[in-house]
Amino acid sequence: MSPPACPGAALPGGASRGGRPSADISPPTRQDRRGEARRQAEQARRAALIERLTVSMRVVSSFWVGAYVRRVNATGAFAAIARRGAAEAGAIFVKVARLDGTADLYAPAPQSVFDEGRAYDRRFERVLEAAEDAAVEARLKREIGFDPDVWIVEVEDRQGRSFLEA
Known about the structure:
Blueprint: H1 30-55, H2 61-74, E1 78-83, E2 92-97, E3 102-108, E4 124-132, H3 133-146, E5 151-156
Parallel strand pairs: 2-5
Antiparallel strand pairs: 1-5, 2-3, 3-4
């Protein structure tokens, strides 16, 4: 077989005219391996950062409670913070007093209720409905004993509206 017409072209078997292997199949050098390891480490760091940002996109409790109280008060009902919890991630309980001696209690919903696309939202479930105030207070006392970092927001509304998204 005759050599290729182009002076720098590789010969069959990966050899070039000088007898050395061509750049296409040369074994990786230590520097190439270090560069690849650095690239992989950078990709892993970026992936971890993206996951951390995705998980931490949830609004902190203090901000959410403040916005919720303002929203309730803007509708003509009355809301107040009865207990301040952990500013960043305290669980939030909402007591809706109907002003007739009964109240509803809303607690954080279990993770199984969350939509995959809206995992950063806060979801609530009604755990007590039209219960006596004493029963609601007893339940809140148990929750505080279990987790002292809880927030308690009390809403007073004769119609029993919670102002929480469904």
